[in-house]
Amino acid sequence: MVPARAIGDGVAEVPKSTNPSPAQGPGKEIKRSIPLSGETDPQKGKEHFDKIIEKEPKNADAYYYRANAKTVLQDLDGAIEDFSKVIELSPKDYEAWFFRGYAKQLKGNAKGALADYDKTISLVPLEPIPYVMRGELRMTLGDFKGAKKDIDKAMKLAPDAPLVRMKRGALKGATGEYDESIKDFDKVIEALPGFAQAYFARAIVKEVKGDVDGALQDCDEAIKRDDKLPDAHWKRGRLKTAKKEYAGAIEDFDRAIDLGMKSSDAYAARGYARGEKKDFEGAIEDYNRAIELEPKNERVWYSRGWAKSEKKDFEGAIKDYTECIKLNPDADAYGGRGWAKRANQDLDGAIADYTRAMELDPKDATYSHGRAGAKYGKGDYAGAIKDYETAIALEPNDTSRYLACGNAWHELKDYAAAVKTYSRALAVDPKLYSAYIGLGGSKDAAGDHADAIKEYSKAVEIDPKQTLAYTRRGWVRVTTREYPEALRDFEKTVELDPKDGWAHCNAGTAKYYVEDISGAIEKTRKGLELGGGDFYQRLKLWYFLCLQGKSKEAAEELEKNTPEDGKNSKPEEHEALLRQFVTGAMEEKELLAAVEKNTDAATRSGNLCEAFFYAGVKRLAAADKTGAGELFRKCVETKESTYSEYIYAERELKKLK
User: Fold this and answer.
1) What whole-number distance in Å separates Cα of residue 187 and Cα of residue 209?
2) Is the pTM of this model over 0.85?
3) pLDDT in tens, 574-599
4) CA 546, CA 527: separation in Å to the nearest integer?
5) Sequence-ordered list of residues with C-beta below 8 angstroms from that of 125, at least 6 positions apart, any chain
6) What's the gap between Cα 91 and its chain centre?
7) Helices in 328-467 by DSSP H: which ranges?
8) Residue 657: DSSP 8-state
9) Low-confidence ranges of the chain (pLDDT < 70)
10) What's the pLDDT at 18?
11) Are 501 and 484 a contacting pair, CB within 8 Å?
12) Which of 14, 84, 497, 617 gives 163 a disulfide partner, CB atoms 3.0 to 4.6 angstroms apart?
């Protein structure tokens, strides 16, 4: 930027004053005798005046113009030195005082700039621009009273000057007089409809007022008039981000950066938009650049930690949050690191960080909820409930707190308390699908299957296109032996999500219960092909095929459907024992002895239930009904009534009678 020789012509990107006499100084515009010699390159201009000064060391104009060139070249110390020389040679040269003040302002020497503006005003008290510049500087220093006095004086001297009105609009915006500020910018735009900066300035005030759409429209208008305003592109990007228009925001940030806005804020803003678009690699690249430019900006460290967490780089996230804590140990930083530690299974570390966050900001429910989650992960359900209740007290309208607390009560097997807590969520939102799912699960676990079905049915009414309620209701109906109804529920899940392998497997199980063995085989196979199911679904398929007398085919298919990780499991593991047995690699006695030996007391009964059943199926396939019946009875005697094998054994015993 080349400072204009006549102050009245304006400064920087501001428009020329349209007010004649008072805005042009005390009545005589200084005419400089030395031209720029046709040079528009500031470096060449400087060199030109170097030569003149060498020959004419007392030529004030030469010093002035060289100071001008040095300002453009960002040699502010050199510019100040040359303007000082002009003042030494011509103490009443108000332009030299003014522009030396401007150079000092650019350099951050506010006190020196104010002194030079004071001197300028004493020399040309009827010139409005020095008042404007002094007022603007005072505004940046927080001296709004002094700024208002200066801007008001400038308005009296040049009431129609757009520059002066621009500054008054900015001052009013800074002091909260938003409507009056906008009126001033309206007047500037009316006088200078092509002046992009006026639209941009008005956009800033509209954004502060909460008029995001109006601010966005003004940014559009500013950019139409001057596509090379990086600040306008940056602001429009921020506004688009606020409206969740992330693709458009990224385009604007790209443009702002291309135009030279290579600041930490610019890269950080684009990083955020990229992160919201799930481009975490791109976001991290931007945050890297932002940190290079401003390594002590704790918010950028925080943001990069968030992006790394989203990318599952929890170790990297923890390091970034730690750097953020070093720079500013606030609650957000501890909360962020707590989340990353929890995700990284450092639950004790997470609890410590959340505890510190709660100490720093006890009114933010995020931290008590986060600590509750970490305690839940450790199995400390009672401790989790206390923290969830703290979060609920802070944010009683956030239903997620009730749902999580209800889950903790469920884990404690206090189903009545769980039901009460899920019901509290419904008091906030009577149509909360997840709350009905929770109620159904706790009532089912408490043995109240009829009410569980009712709760799942309410969930279906609320959102008939979600599959979870149908699946849960289907399994309760299996428990209550309502097999046709269970089949309808599972078939509905297949209809809603035909690519869900588990939905097909569940439907296959229901087909078995209604005595449609061929349908059970077809559906289970389809589910496995789609990637659903697990080892036990493969065992079910083996069982269904055995019922059709296809035990050899069943064993071959089980082996084929077992993934490599299953085949490579340790031989003594329970699933491996069952697989070896049904495929013929292990005898019945070996299986039962291995289950007795290799399983602990907590799981032995359930594992024996399974082993007895599959051994019975193999006896049945070999036409040994007596032996099969004996093994099925042993299966039922385990009393593991929640196991599918227990239910299957009961059915087979009925057939054998």
Assistant:
1) 19
2) no
3) 898 999 999 999 999 999 999 988 76
4) 19
5) none
6) 59
7) 331-343, 347-360, 365-377, 381-394, 399-411, 415-428, 433-445, 449-462
8) -
9) 1-40, 563-572, 599
10) 26
11) no
12) 14
